[in-house]
Amino acid sequence: MHAYRTHTCAQLRESNVGESVRLSGWVHRKRDHGGVLFIDLRDHYGITQIVADEDSEALGLLDSLKSESVITIDGVVKARSQETRNANLPTGDIEVFAKSATVQSMAEELPLPVAGEQEYPEDIRLKYRFVDLRRERVHNNIMLRNKVITSLRRRMIDQGFSEFQTPILGASSPEGARDYLVPSRLHPGRFYALPQAPQMFKQLLMVAGFDRYFQIAPCFRDEDLRADRSPEFYQLDFEMSFVTQEDVFQAIEPVLAGVFEEFSGGKTVTPAGEFPRIPYAEAMLKYGSDKPDLRNPIIITDVTHHFEKSGFGIFEKIVGGGGIVRAIPAPSTNEKSRKFFDEMNDWARREGYSGLGYVTRKGGEFGGPIAKNHGPEEMAKLYDELGLGLNDGLFFAAGKARDVVKLAGAARTRVGEQLELIEQGCFKFCWIVDFPMFEYDEELKRIDFSHNPFSMPQGEMDALENQDPLEIKAWQYDIVCNGYELSSGAIRNHRPDIMYKAFELAGYSKEDVDANFSGMIEAFKLGAPPHGGSAPGIDRIVMLLADEPNIREVIAFPMNQRAQDLMMGAPSIVSPKQLRELSIRTVEQPKPDAPEATRVDRAGDA
Fold it and tell me: How far apart are CA 325 and CA 307, in angstroms?
């Protein structure tokens, strides 16, 4: 017999009754029924009920154990009586009578319970993550992640993609988010950068002639964290040669749709080949976001022209000053009191905006200051134009375009949630396309790249030379699902002449490009194919499939919101010897009430 087990804790069935078996696992729950002790024994695979009574030599030992102790049980499989069977367990028709038990590891008092799904403070959960991972929900999330990655890998290989690994230690790039830097011992004063993405390397693989590449790529970005963002994350990184934007779409849609269908648990999924393509400008108008949640039926409309000459002086003044007005419908709100509308206005103010105007309509009668001043006839025209009914309310966002777009988008989401309009039980995908190549930077008072500087402009060199830069579109695209951006991608700019010109429009000289992107630009001078790709985020995919609100719930060992590993104590202070080896001197930050002169250089004895 095996030293630890003949079966896992999920294998035994009624057909095994009478067999002598050996099981090992953790003590999940204990129940003492007056001389009869029941233990739920748990391993990675499942749970088996162990029973011991006065006829069992193991009773005293088992009775003394704390939860989460690791034990090995030798016993006999018995059928449960009909009234004690547990239909919720695969092993629920049997139990194992313990003849003997061996303690493999005794558990002390637990910092958090494993059995049950009680909420527990995140700092405790992360500090004792190895215990937290034993909990059923989190354990299942990590196994789901494993299955999703396996499925993604298989689907990419089936489409003719080859898996390659790109370097972790690379060069810092002036574009993108903030890098995590790694000092070089052999080259004092110089630093490697952990990859924000394998962008340049995967493009160089195309230049090298490999045609279809992918990898499950680790990426690192030193940026502020939020519920769907982690400093260390993984993405399905891929690139293809001799492709158009449409070729990229046809390659990745079956992969994503297939994975979501496989693990959706019965939820509907946008079929491959049917992902809507929404131009960026349209997305910002209709949804107030380039990450629209298409489960929400509310559509934002620009109604600026209705208030150019209006009895509602506030809006007329805003429009006359170059501002805009956007309308956000609130369907079937005739049963809602004024409190609902006032609370939406209060919410907008808490978000830092001046407010959210509104009109009520009940049985065709308009209500509220905007309707009163704008007039019932003009309001009726506006409602007819928007296709609104006799009992639909309407919210308004008015002001500078940039602020109005953000407020309208946030209000659309909130109204959809408050009125329970968000469709459940589905995953709705879309592509956001036709991103602007450039934007005007109000602070720097110049044109800059709006998204990805290495994208091919639509119209290529002709567009760069003959169009208003702010009108140029790029071959850039995002995949969005249920309001989450899963990936950004692009058809790349593979021609040095076009790259130099694009950077010139953004204020960079030829020398700047050569200095900052020498590896890529030199490679392109030696024969580069047209190529493009994308990189769906694995963490966000699993987060959606697991129906989790926070990305940390689907990462085995995540950091907290301050980018700290509470379990391993990272980031940590290193020794003076290590600093000297790296030729580094650190500067200790002063305490809040300390004068500037108290800053101290720290490099050990250096």
Answer: 8
